[in-house]
Amino acid sequence: MSKPVIVVVGAGPGVSGSVARRFADEGYDVALLGADQAVIGDLVPDLEARGATVGHAVVDVTDEQAARDAVRRFGEHTGRIDVLHFNPSAFREKDPLNLTVVELLEDVALGVGALLTVAQAARPYMSSGGRISVTGSMAADDPWEGAASLGVQKAGVRNLVHSLDKTLAADGIRAVSVTVRGTLAREGAFTPDRVADAIFDAVTRDAGEWTSEVAYRG
């Protein structure tokens, strides 16, 4: 029996890197999909030192075909995807009177649309017990007007998670958005590692306790 596999989409030095490490510590092999080769290059040896076999690809996840192909390669290589974690979002410091429609749609393509792409690509390699998780944010409910597109992304991706969960539940696959109700920091309750712990706990809950949103309040 092969080890369980997590695919981390939007792999970076923050929450997504902490998620990769948390699951590696629990015996998962890890596939990293990110936009920055240097960041991925830093994560790989750390994960390998924790006992994980690591695959990685550098790709713009808004490039639908490239993202689909990368996820499929992971799935074909491992034969399974047990957890798909989605982390990307765009932070654009523009209020609603200065944000253009083109900019808004560009940001939504990253923070929401790319989840559709990778979930559809991963589905053939997921079976009952599989999980999709998303790093959510309190910006979905209480947006900062200075970065208006972020709240739209987080509200949209949470809504999409609810739909994915309803669609996949009959096959025993569930989806969850972990809403971080605090500001990420280097210390305290909202460090990336603490948020990663919350994501791991949400993903590994018993199916009988499942909800498609979990709030992390620290």
TrEMBL record:
GO molecular function ontology, one term from the record: oxidoreductase activity
Family named by the database record: Belongs to the short-chain dehydrogenases/reductases (SDR) family.
The organism's place on the tree of life at top rank: Bacteria
This protein's name: SDR family oxidoreductase
Keywords noted in UniProt: Oxidoreductase
